[in-house]
Amino acid sequence: MARLQTGRSGVAWVAPENFHLTLKFLGHVDQSRLESVQAALASAVGGSPRFELTCAGLGAFPTAGRPRVIWAGVRDGAETATRLAQVVERALAPLGFEPEGRAFSAHITLGRLRVPGRDPALATALEAAGGRVFGSTPIDRVALMRSDLSPRGARYTELSAFPLG
To answer: Looking at the annotation, which residues are catalytic?
Structure first.
């Protein structure tokens, strides 16, 4: 991230302590529905295995040539994370949460461009780090998080956690 940040303004960078892998974005959930969401998640993910997740490579959505979101990819553990996202999707559908319209893409968001547009230097930097491995971490739980947005970025609060395995 430090190399990407150098000489680059107009990007809202995610603080390292806020890095996370989103399995499903729920949007606003009314307090009255929270207990049923928690019960569905606890039941759904409990049988899923613990796994190791390795971050490797950089990229951008929708493309490196016209980035809106800068991300670190997931190499090892991507298939397991995808299956876990599908489990969460199926568990929450009966509660009225619409299925995601696009395929799950395991990634860690590093930053969001305030004004999307072409940035050839950024595209080159992303391509140069395409095969770089950034590290691994064990995944042993799924957390239900609340995010509060502010001009300085999102603040995350863990509402509950559900162990894997």
So the answer is: 20, 107
